[in-house]
Amino acid sequence: MDNMSPPTLKLAQKTSSFIAHLTPEPLIPSISKAIELFESDDNGSKIVLFHTPRQLSKSGAYQFSVPTKRKEHQYLISSPISLKDLNLDQSQVRDQYYQDIVSGKEFYYDDKIFPYAQAYAGFQFGHFAGQLGDGRVHNLFQLNNPETGKTYELQLKGSGKTAFSRFADGKAVLRSSVREFIVSEALNGLRIPSIRSLSLSILPGTYAQRNSAETCAVISRFAESWIRIGSFDYYRMRQDRIGLRALSDYVLNNVLTELPIFKKNQYQVIDPEDDDLIEIEDSTRYDQMYRAIVRLNARTVAYWQVYGFINGVLNTDNTSIIGLSLDFGPFNFLDKFDPNFSSNSEDELLRYSYENQPSAIWWNLTRLGESLIELLGAGPDLIDDEKFIKNGVAGEVEKEKLIKRANSIIRNAGKEYKSIFFQHYNELFGKRLGLKEYKKGDEIIYEKLLSILTKTEKDYNKFFLDLQNQDLSKILTNYEIFMSPEIFQRFSNPEDKIDKELQTELTSSFKEFSELYHARLLEQSISPFEISSHYNPLFLPRSWIFEDVIQHTSDNYKEGDTSYLSKLLKMSSNPYDPTKWGDELKDLELKWLGETYDIGKVMQQCSCSS
What we know:
- By secondary structure, this protein is an alpha+beta fold.
- It folds into 4 domains: 14-224, no CATH class; 232-429, no CATH class; 437-532, no CATH class; 543-593, no CATH class.
- The chain is built from 21 helices and 13 strands.
- The strands form 4 sheets. Strands 1, 3, 7, 8, 9, 10 and 11 form a 7-stranded antiparallel β-sheet that branches. Strands 2-4 form a two-stranded antiparallel ribbon.
- Helix 6 (174-189) packs parallel to helix 20 (563-573) and helix 9 (285-307) runs antiparallel to helix 10 (357-371).
- The longest helix is centred in the last third of the chain and has 37 residues, at 396-432.
- The relative contact order is 0.10.
- The model has no long low-confidence stretch (mean pLDDT 94).
- One of its GO terms (cellular component) is mitochondrion.
């Protein structure tokens, strides 16, 4: 192999910093014990210790576990972009070793690496759910890309039971696996921070009972870190001060290694009437860590809102500390702009609706602040004091001082979260409208546009494409691009009083928006298309398209036909560049690009069943 060529997965250097720096649960206390158990003939102990769900009796950041061997493991497809980002040889997808590892048929281990499941807890729909953890995930090892300097941890999802499976079966069905495999790469293609998908494999003969018996699958996926807010919830639940500090130190030393240094906190909340707030003059590394986590999540949520992405289940165990879109279940993209839409059919109170996503993530970040209350409250004088590290603070006066400092940092962070969110939102939304840079007052244009789109039922993302292709001189007069065909018909030929009122209301709204927007465009020398074409995707995977692909893959995988899946991967991974969509299945491509207003296809909801 050429020294400059990317290595195969077999030859790639592998590490596992999470298990090198953090402590496992005590039933399998070391890699050597895990290897000894795996290589033994004691199948009963293997089942109990590797695969039997249980409440951990003592703290531990993870549990050693191994993927479950199934009747058959059939590799289907890999993402070429993911292989490149992992610095892996593209041609190796045909190698048996690669296919065996990414499908869970075999796994790699040595004296420093062994598969494990991460422990975490979480608040689900606002209520604490106790111990959760990787119930059907096995973390394998880390891979480094020397060209980018990034290190990613590879894991399998749907690979069998662990100690954290609770009442579940450790499986993932093909339906949900196809959706997650594609959406991870779609979000990456949109430049929205996200976990990534490497490959998808099917497990013929292995079924999971959901609404019916469904064929199972395994995804191999990767991220720079799989730590989530729920990881901190776990140590808070166990009242494990030492473990929580160890996790925080791991994050500082191995994940958020380049924290921004803020000389002055411009987000200081000053309220003379609030006795619970104090001015924060000096910061510690844990303060900086918390602020970094807040800022990263604020940026990601802003991107979701601009592109109309809805996660559907924003629990703390699904919230990444580095702001990655994570754990996709009932996700969707807005087909129409409806702020109250939740893609989760079980979200009856709309807690995780499109409109509520920013507040839901801030709620989760507040829970993180509460988990870190001792580390945030200590301040520079106490944080490295040996007595404090060992025993915490003693005495009511010291505790009150600590709580006030922590509360002040969390309140400050709330102001920072809001500021960073709107900074990214305003800039990115403007780019979708072809504005070179954000100017104060542009948000009025955005608000007027979104108010229109809530009434016109226009395809949300298609609207931006239609607008960017509009001649500048017609922006003031062509109102059809704002409306669905049905609304345009009612607008153009009102038949009753309701239609006439709609016509009057929309005409006024169109005029206000168009005049403001047109005037704003005249302020810049560059054409809006030159900007917006880099930010408005030509394609997004929709629910009805997923249904096409899932059905085709389910019907044809035995013959090795993954053509629909491959086509969807190409289009989703390269949403701005149709030259990378391939020459195959052009009729299907046109169908998927078509604008649909079929009530049975748009704004679909899913359950959490996967």
